[in-house]
Amino acid sequence: MTTAMRTDSHRYPERPKTDCALADRIAGMETPMLTEMAAATFHLERLLQSVGTPEQELAAYTTDMTAARHCDYVLGVADRIRRAVDQLTAPYEKPATADTAPDQTGDAAA
């Protein structure tokens, strides 16, 4: 769990620097959790603009790698990202109510 750290340098220590220039730039504007989530989102969105085809990604390895193993690795990392996001956001999820819960009767016509 992260704890909010004030950035008022007169009373509180400065936030520690990270290895991410974006996170360092926006630190103090939001909580540490939001800073890290925003930085991770930025990195993933930037990746969308530069990622190659699966074949190009496979060719970028400096060691032997099979297409199947690369695929398993990519999907495994994606699962880790999803689990982490689910764990981070779970405390903020609103419980389903009768108004927001999906219709469980299977009757599409109402």
Could you characterize the architecture of this molecule?
The protein has 110 residues and is mainly α. Among the domains are: 19-51; 52-92, no CATH class. It is built from 4 helices and no strands. It is flat and about 55 Å long. The chain starts with 20 loop residues before the first helix and ends in a 21-residue tail after the last helix.
Key terms for this structure?
110 residues; mainly alpha
What is the averaged pLDDT score? 79
Q: Give me the oligomer status.
A: single chain
Total count of strands: 0
Beta strand %: under 5%
**What composes the largest sheet?**
none
What would a concise description of this structure say?
49% of the residues lie in helices and 0% in strands. It is mainly alpha-helical.
Q: How do the strands and helices of this protein lay out in sequence?
A:
Elements: H1 21-26, H2 32-50, H3 54-59, H4 67-89
